[in-house]
Design brief:
Structural class: mainly alpha
Strand content: under 5%
Number of strands: 2
Helix content: over 70%
Number of helices: 18
Largest sheet: 2 strands, antiparallel
Order of helices and strands: HHHHHHEHHHEHHHHHHHHH
Number of domains: 2
Shape: elongated
């Protein structure tokens, strides 16, 4: 079996995709966890086992970035070629991730050959993720808000738009401010240097730290509200309660594991800081995984033929990765620098989320246009359909559906040709929506007769 055949059979099989994604996620969680507690485990990270683990995680990160780019591009070439936004996003992401991979390689070589590395490498990663990551999120937010302004019928666009903007601002200042601590460190880091948590008396971002957690919480709340409205459209009533419970639990979990960030005292916290840090890290990751799982589960329920399915799964993967990675930090400047690998994964994670969410929004927008066409054409055929009851499909309705479907298919092809993104409406969806339109018209007619 040649390499191309192996990658096409392993990396694009749905079950193996999930396994490989979980494999990457586990090592990113390990990386972020070790990156926030290096001062407690100095002996371990300096050992041959610790250095070997760091190098292995770096290799997993490099392979993961390359694979995820390929995963997004596969079967989406038509969409990318017809969307200036997605094609520019892909180009920028490839260039930036190339820089981040090269940066990781330099750090690995420096540690293996010279037993040292430079804080310049940390600054490169920290600034790229803070600036480019925030720009990616703000552009997506502005697109959603622009769509809402042009069509005020969908409040979900505004909810998501504000959620992304608040998160982008928090993300930028949260990580960009860490430059102050990195610039305070020695330019060369060696194994003999003591690992200490940095403290700055003149931090211009001090005010922001007091509101950072609240901004993130508001962003998360808005995102969960928008996600319920969005995912609710694809679920039967029996599953909607499960969705509510999952989203509420994820929010409650986030609040509970970050109580100290809200100024609330946790008993005996000073005596077990290492456990507090790990619980905060893992608790936030679990909460994010629950949200991502909601998108993934809804996507799986839609079936393989529904184009929304793959966009929901992309969004789920991106969400989970973002929750994992944003727990990381580089300000401890340990040797080796755990946390660097996970933060190097930020751009590909935001790109994955951005691509999936944008494509999903475009597909949904096309569905709305097609539903408007169905509604218009159904009303025009009211004389033909006026005798049709609710209980069962009749031959007249089937013929009407065929006529409407012909018009819808033509418009659907025009939209797909323009955007490269398929509609998720099936013939069954068209029939169901026609029934819904007829029922609403019947109710309206009864109300008018009653008055």
């Amino acid at each position: 079996m040649n390499l191309r055949k192996f990658t096409s059979t392993f990396f694009y099989d749905s079950k193996k995709i999930l396994i490989f994604f979980l494999f990457i996620s586990v090592f990113l969680v390990i990386d972020t966890s070790l990156g926030i507690i290096p001062d407690f485990i100095t002996e371990f990270i300096l050992s041959s086992t610790g250095i070997s683990l760091f190098i292995f995680i770096n290799l997993v990160t490099i392979i993961g970035i390359i694979w995820l780019h390929s995963f997004v591009s596969k079967d989406n070439a038509n969409i990318i070629s017809k969307s200036r936004y997605l094609s520019n996003l892909l180009l920028i992401s490839k260039i930036i991730n190339g820089v981040l991979i090269a940066n990781l390689c330099i750090v690995i070589v420096s540690i293996l050959l010279f037993s040292k590395y430079s804080t310049i490498n940390l600054l490169i990663t920290n600034n790229i993720m803070a600036i480019i990551g925030s720009i990616f999120l703000i552009i997506l937010a502005l697109k959603f808000i622009k769509w809402y302004i042009s069509d005020r019928t969908s409040i979900i666009l505004l909810i998501y738009g504000f959620s992304f903007i608040i998160f982008a601002i928090s993300f930028f200042f949260g990580y960009f401010s860490e430059n102050l601590y990195l610039l305070d460190k020695s330019i060369i880091i060696t194994p003999s240097m003591e690992v200490l948590y940095p403290i700055s008396d003149n931090d211009p971002f001090e005010f922001f730290y007091h509101i950072y957690t609240y901004l993130i919480t508001i962003s998360l709340f808005l995102f969960l509200v928008g996600s319920y409205i969005l995912l609710n459209n694809y679920l039967e009533k029996v599953y909607r309660l499960r969705l509510i419970i999952t989203l509420v639990l994820s929010f409650v979990l986030y609040i509970l594991v970050n109580l100290d960030s809200y100024g609330l005292e946790i008993p005996n916290a000073d005596q077990s800081l290492i456990f507090l840090y790990l619980i905060q890290n893992l608790g936030t990751v679990v909460g994010g995984a629950m949200i991502g799982y909601s998108f993934w589960k809804v996507g799986k329920r839609l079936g393989n033929t529904n184009p929304i399915r793959k966009y929901l799964i992309m969004t789920a993967f991106g969400l989970i990765l973002i929750f994992i990675i944003t727990q990381g930090t580089l300000i401890m400047t340990s040797f080796p620098p755990f946390g660097l690998s996970s933060l190097s994964f930020v751009i590909i994670s935001i790109y994955l989320f951005n691509f999936g969410f944008y494509a999903m929004a475009v597909s949904l927008s096309q569905d709305v246009k097609l539903r408007q066409t169905i509604k218009l054409k159904t009303k025009r055929n009211i004389n033909l359909l006026s005798s049709i009851g609710k209980a069962q499909m009749t031959s007249e309705l089937q013929r009407a559906v065929s006529d409407v479907k012909t018009v819808v298919e033509k418009e659907e092809k025009e939209l797909e040709e323009k955007t490269g993104i398929e509609s998720s409406l099936s013939e069954e969806n068209i029939q169901d929506y026609m029934k819904h339109v007829l029922e609403e018209m019947g109710k309206s007619k009864k109300r008018s007769q009653g008055t």
